[in-house]
Specification:
It is a single chain. By secondary structure, the chain is of the alpha/beta class. About 30% of the residues lie in helices and about 25% in strands. The protein has eleven helices and 18 strands. The strands form three sheets. Strands 7, 8, 9, 12, 13, 14, 15, 16, 17 and 18 form a ten-stranded mixed sheet that branches. Strands 3-2-1-4-5-6 form a six-stranded parallel sheet. A two-stranded antiparallel ribbon has the order 10-11.
């Protein structure tokens, strides 16, 4: 049966850079996939222009050319916030429809409100990009609107981090290893760091990023989803309901460290600097930026998960742009051993670390060992394994789940609201000036003082 994939906002960067290459990879993997690809947007493109964009984007996916599989693809100029124009876009779709909202959040909300009055095919999937609302109340209103259109099982809130091969591999590491599974609690783990530092700067994304910042762009969405996978109790199965129930329970138990957003958060913005051979202007001088907004490009918060499993363990979430070292990782630091036999020499700061790299995917176990010239001297050694990049990229996994009508890797409505609840105290503290906006030169690793200090409980 033919599935119609209609991308709203098809002329935008997200579509050409990520969505269309993922569609190409899906077509390469599944020769029987019957896909009617359509695009709609407010740019005055014709079908020929759209098809050229599709062809060029497909080429970036590598592999065999599958452009002929969607040679009849069409593009329509439309205001997707108008019910009558949305009605026209879907009027000739027979049965299975995927509406992908590759548009700014405010446009997605307006489009969903307009869709509430549109007659959609029964087998319609709504796929929305984060952020899902602008705060907890807005997320709740959006969820109410979506429930008027389709059932929750027909809503795919896209967080492509949930499709990352490393994050999915984490399930096997956690639950299938006797040497790790019993240790996964406050009894043995001292702290957890979830970091996503980028060397990329604004890259012409001011229209979205200046209204979001590092907190909304990364911490409130992607990194809290990673926390949920790390902190959840073992589900009975990895089915949609069991897995999402376990994640939601972890998020409900999560709050800012000691309920003190001033002490448990910090923020900064990059100034002019150099990364490699690129000279970067100050963020405040980037095109499209409003300096008065004080948008942060580096954010860090410390959370705690109020359960018997995790009480007292700080979970530090950090992400920033224009940083010198690109570091995307999960660091699980084990607590020091209770007793060290007298005679072993050397400083041991912890009981070892388990680290995961988020692209290229890898895992390392840092151990304290002795031997060598001085058989009683301790040193740190690392055991590592390359996990590879997975057979498909994250968005290909997302599309695969969407077309299979499997929402396991989607953010459920209640989890979307919980993520806003968790960060809202920090947002208020920042708006009220309780946490200063620091600065750091582009190409550095953040403000100098961050290297020697951390928010209370931090694992930086």
């Amino acid at each position: 049966m033919t599935t119609t994939l209609l991308i709203l906002g098809a002329s935008g960067d997200l579509t050409s850079r990520l969505l269309l290459p993922a569609v190409a990879q899906l077509l390469q993997r599944d020769p029987d996939l019957d896909l009617d690809l359509r695009g709609a947007g407010n740019d005055s493109w014709d079908d020929a222009k759209w098809r050229q964009v599709v062809h060029d984007s497909f080429a970036t996916a590598g592999g065999r050319d599958v452009t002929s599989r969607i040679s009849s693809t069409q593009y329509a100029v439309a205001d997707v916030t108008r019910a009558d124009e949305l009605e026209g876009l879907v009027s000739n779709v027979a049965d299975e429809l995927v509406l992908y909202f590759a548009v700014p959040p405010r446009v997605a909300v307006a489009a969903c409100e307009a869709l509430a009055g549109v007659d959609l095919p029964k087998k319609t999937i709504l796929a929305l990009e984060k952020p899902f609302g602008g705060d907890e109340a807005a997320a709740e209103r959006l969820n109410v609107t979506l429930a008027r259109i389709v059932s929750e099982e027909q809503v795919f809130r896209v967080d492509h981090f949930l499709g990352r091969s490393t994050l999915l591999s984490l399930l096997g590491v956690r639950f299938a290893n006797r040497i790790i599974e019993p240790l996964w609690s406050a009894e043995n783990i001292e702290s957890v760091l979830i970091r996503y530092d980028e060397s990329l700067a604004l890259e012409n994304r001011a229209r979205y990023y200046d209204g979001a910042g590092a907190m909304i762009d990364m911490l409130q969405s992607h990194l809290l989803q990673v926390l949920a996978v790390l902190a959840m109790d073992p589900p009975a199965t990895l089915s949609e309901r069991d897995l999402r129930d376990a994640k939601a329970a972890a998020l409900r138990a999560t709050r800012i460290w000691q309920n003190d957003p001033v002490r448990a958060s910090r923020r900064a913005r990059y100034t002019a600097g150099r990364i490699g051979d690129r000279e970067l202007p100050s963020y405040a001088d980037e095109s499209g930026v409003d300096p008065m907004r004080e948008t942060e490009t580096l954010a860090e918060i410390v959370c705690e998960v109020g359960t018997a499993r995790w009480a007292g363990v700080p979970f530090t979430l950090r992400s920033g742009k224009a940083l010198g070292d690109k570091r995307a990782e999960i660091v699980v630091r084990f607590a020091p051993v209770r007793h060290m036999p007298h005679g072993l020499t050397g400083v041991v700061s912890d009981g070892g670390q388990l680290r995961f790299s988020l692209g290229p995917d890898a895992m390392w176990l840092d151990l304290n060992v002795n031997g060598g010239a001085d058989p009683f001297a301790l040193r740190r050694e690392t055991l590592g394994v390359e996990l590879g990049e997975g057979s498909v990229n994250a968005y290909t996994e997302v599309f695969s789940e969407i077309l299979a009508r499997d929402v396991t890797l989607s953010v459920r409505a209640d989890s979307a609201e919980e993520c806003w609840r968790i960060v809202e105290p920090v947002q208020r503290a920042w708006r009220d000036g309780g946490v200063p906006l620091e600065d750091y030169p582009a190409g550095s690793n953040g403000p100098k003082q961050w290297a020697t200090s951390a928010p209370r409980g931090g694992a930086s």
